């Protein structure tokens, strides 16, 4: 599967001319589709749908769903990382390739609330949220990318009662911990000018959590303001109009004290990116 999917990765395109045709699996494609193959797509679709059927998902993620023994827990988790990262890579390729079924895939992956939470626990326990280890290990980036997409879709469909009152999937303190981690991860990506291939997925999840927190607080008052970093250094970066400073202002506006920055940049169009707490 991991060898086959990359061959189809570039099939989906934006319709730019009359030479594009709608493919039942991949969306818009270049080149005409052989009509003799159309009836076969129904069978191919049924076969692909097995990959995100709840029973298959449970098997694929069985390593993280099974409880770990108390002794040598971290070592046993590390042993499971290669297989889990391969599974995550497969689903990421499927999401990228079979664009017509993205919603179905994410629903299938998230139908068991335990899976999403267990993947986060696995990621946290194996990395200890060490940024250097995360940046330097491809498998962790793959796991984080799929986790971000699964959580983002989950947050889109859960209402406030399910998310905050019933605390379905995640407790409020878990959500606060995830936001703190993503906040610092994305800041370091920008500040240290590191490469993070899945930046947009992580940023989308972080901003979604921020918007939900604005509606109903699950974090403390100054949780979103960047901690452990001198604010005058950040303000100096903005005053210098560096690409790094402007990128943080646009992509992570919540890490700055709103009142100070909004007064300083009240006439700047970038102030439109700020949300009032």
Automatic annotation (TrEMBL):
<dbReference type="GO" id="GO:0016874">
    <property type="term" value="F:ligase activity"/>
</dbReference>
<dbReference type="GO" id="GO:0006511">
    <property type="term" value="P:ubiquitin-dependent protein catabolic process"/>
</dbReference>
<protein>
    <recommendedName>
        <fullName>HECT-type E3 ubiquitin transferase</fullName>
        <ecNumber>2.3.2.26</ecNumber>
    </recommendedName>
</protein>
<dbReference type="InterPro" id="IPR044611">
    <property type="entry name" value="E3A/B/C-like"/>
</dbReference>
<keyword id="KW-0808">Transferase</keyword>
<dbReference type="GO" id="GO:0061630">
    <property type="term" value="F:ubiquitin protein ligase activity"/>
</dbReference>
<keyword id="KW-0436">Ligase</keyword>
<dbReference type="GO" id="GO:0000209">
    <property type="term" value="P:protein polyubiquitination"/>
</dbReference>
């Amino acid at each position: 599967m991991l060898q086959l999917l990359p061959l189809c990765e570039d099939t989906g395109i934006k319709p730019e001319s009359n030479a594009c045709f709608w493919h039942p699996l991949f969306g818009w494609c270049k080149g005409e589709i052989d009509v003799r193959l159309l009836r076969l797509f129904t069978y191919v679709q049924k076969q692909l749908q097995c990959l995100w059927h709840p029973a298959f998902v449970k098997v694929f993620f069985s390593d993280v769903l099974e409880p770990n023994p108390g002794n040598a827990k971290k070592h046993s988790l590390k042993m499971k990382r290669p297989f889990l990262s391969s599974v995550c890579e497969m689903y990421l390729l499927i999401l990228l390739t079979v664009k017509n079924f993205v919603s179905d895939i994410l629903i299938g992956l998230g139908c068991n609330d335990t899976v999403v939470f267990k993947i986060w626990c696995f990621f946290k326990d194996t990395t200890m949220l060490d940024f250097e280890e995360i940046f330097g290990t491809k498998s962790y980036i793959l796991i984080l990318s799929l986790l971000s997409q699964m959580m983002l879709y989950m947050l889109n469909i859960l209402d406030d009662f399910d998310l905050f009152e019933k605390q379905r999937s995640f407790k409020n303190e878990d959500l606060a911990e995830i936001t703190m981690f993503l906040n610092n991860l994305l800041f370091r990506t920008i500040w240290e000018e590191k490469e993070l291939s899945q930046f947009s997925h992580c940023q989308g999840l972080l901003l979604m959590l921020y918007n939900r927190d604005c509606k109903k607080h699950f974090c403390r008052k100054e949780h979103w303001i960047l901690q452990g970093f001198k604010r005058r250094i950040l303000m100096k970066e903005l005053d210098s109009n560096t690409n790094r400073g402007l990128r943080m202002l646009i992509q992570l506006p919540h890490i700055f004290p709103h009142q100070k920055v909004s007064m300083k940049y009240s006439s700047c169009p970038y102030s439109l990116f700020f949300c009032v707490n």
